């Protein structure tokens, strides 16, 4: 049994402008111990997906339909009390902004100890010892002395490490990390991601890592789901997506990963913006921005298929699935891009830019 199995999840927000379909008939699984990445630009529905999984969608949002199975039990059917005991205990969450997770009036150590005492029923001394060990493990030097520091005495990177320690303190089965390192500089980001990965392995914790940066996913995750307009457009093992992306949107995201030694002044980004989810384009919702779009793309709604066979696929572990009409033989011109691997870094060149 998968740790998490989401089936046909649809989430709407009822706004003055109309009904925003933030998540549209979404399905995916996360296995035990797996590091699962969710990537897409702002507005793709990544955070709403995560909040649904914690059952934290609030007015004007509503989970319309679907199942969220956690260890086989549907979270959407559980009592509020049961969900509350799962949150923070079996499923923990960390956000981009460490400051919102840390209370400024208590010391960092006290806050983590309190979580441990509350969830694991530890005594005061035991909880303190576990906290110091955790602070040490997430890379906080002189953890014992720093136990009594207040959050403002920590740097941004240290605060985020403390938040990771707090999230892992109860040994959760699943850690949802929403842009956990976006606010940090790149060298600190890389170190913290490394530690997150090591700790997840050590604690045997699954991760759902949400980011707009495929480079971050490539560093940490085993498998990835690319989201666009509230839907998955590609699901694949990370290596396959990185070296052999199949959906034009994934190709666009790949081209906008910052590379060391990149001399371009600005990152190449995908022209255009995410559609207004009140009024999603017909056919493939990416077609207005897709360099390969044809007439069929304005009409036909692509489903996830195995790009090799064109047969419907879920993109569950071991499968590669992409939702593009190219793979159901509906395109005449095809997708024209090449991926070249230079060292470890794949470089993507659209057909019209090749020399
Ligand atoms: N409280 C809300 N009220 C109205 N619409 C909302 C609300 N929360 C989210 N949405 C809408 O849901 C859609 C998906 O948002 P979501 O935050 O999941 O995107 P995201 O991919 O996580 O982007 P970001 O990286 O900016 O967080 C967006 O169109 C957003 O406007």
From TrEMBL:
Keywords carried by this UniProt record: ATP-binding, Cell inner membrane, Cell membrane, Membrane, Nucleotide-binding, Translocase, Transport
A family per Pfam: oligo_HPY
Membrane-topology annotation of the record: Peripheral membrane protein
Any Gene Ontology CC annotation: plasma membrane
Taxonomic source organism: Halomicrobium mukohataei (strain ATCC 700874 / DSM 12286 / JCM 9738 / NCIMB 13541) (Haloarcula mukohataei)
Gene Ontology biological process: peptide transport
Protein name: Oligopeptide/dipeptide ABC transporter, ATPase subunit
Record localization: Cell membrane
Classification via InterPro entries: AAA+_ATPase, ABC_Ni/Peptide_Import, ABC_transporter-like_ATP-bd, ABC_transporter-like_CS, Oligopep_ABC_C, P-loop_NTPase
Main subcellular location of this protein, as a coarse class: membrane
Cross-referenced SUPFAM superfamilies: P-loop containing nucleoside triphosphate hydrolases
SMART domains to which the protein is assigned, alphabetical: AAA (SM00382)
Gene Ontology MF terms: ATP binding; ATP hydrolysis activity
UniProt keyword Metal-binding present: no
Domain ABC transporter residues, every copy: 4-254
PANTHER family: ATPASE AAA-TYPE CORE DOMAIN-CONTAINING PROTEIN, OLIGOPEPTIDE TRANSPORT ATP-BINDING PROTEIN APPD
Residue stretches spanning the membrane: none
């Amino acid at each position: 049994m998968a740790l998490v199995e989401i089936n046909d999840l649809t989430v709407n927000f009822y706004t003055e402008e109309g009904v925003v379909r933030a998540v549209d008939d979404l399905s995916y699984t996360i296995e035990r111990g797996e590091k699962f990445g969710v990537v897409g630009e702002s507005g793709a529905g990544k955070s709403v997906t995560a909040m649904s999984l914690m059952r934290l969608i609030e007015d004007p949002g509503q989970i319309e339909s679907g199942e969220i199975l956690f260890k086989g039990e549907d979270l959407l059917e559980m009592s509020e009390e049961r969900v509350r005991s799962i949150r923070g205990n079996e499923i923990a969450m960390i956000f981009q902004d460490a400051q919102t997770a840390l209370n400024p009036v208590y010391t960092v150590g006290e806050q983590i100890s309190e979580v441990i005492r509350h969830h694991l029923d530890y005594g005061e001394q035991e909880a303190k010892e576990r906290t110091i060990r955790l602070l040490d493990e997430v890379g906080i030097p002189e953890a014992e002395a720093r136990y009594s520091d207040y959050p403002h005495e920590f740097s941004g990177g240290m605060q985020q490490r403390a938040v990771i320690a707090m999230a892992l303190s109860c040994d959760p089965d699943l850690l949802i990390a929403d842009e956990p390192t976006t606010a940090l500089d790149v060298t600190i980001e890389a170190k913290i991601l490394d530690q997150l990965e090591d700790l997840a392995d050590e604690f045997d914790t699954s991760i759902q890592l949400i980011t707009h940066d495929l480079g971050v996913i490539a560093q940490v995750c085993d498998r990835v789901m690319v989201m666009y307009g509230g839907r998955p457009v590609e699901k694949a093992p990370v290596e396959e997506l990185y070296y052999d992306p199949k959906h034009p949107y994934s190709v666009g995201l790949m081209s906008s990963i910052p590379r060391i030694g990149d001399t371009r002044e600005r990152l190449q980004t995908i022209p255009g913006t995410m559609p207004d989810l009140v009024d999603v384009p017909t056919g493939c919702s990416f077609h207005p921005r897709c360099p390969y779009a044809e007439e069929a793309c304005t009409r036909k709604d692509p489903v996830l298929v195995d790009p090799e066979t064109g047969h419907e696929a879920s993109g569950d572990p071991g499968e590669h699935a992409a939702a593009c009409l190219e793979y159901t033989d509906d395109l005449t011109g095809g997708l024209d891009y090449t991926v070249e691997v230079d060292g470890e870094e794949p470089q993507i060149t659209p057909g019209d830019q090749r020399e």
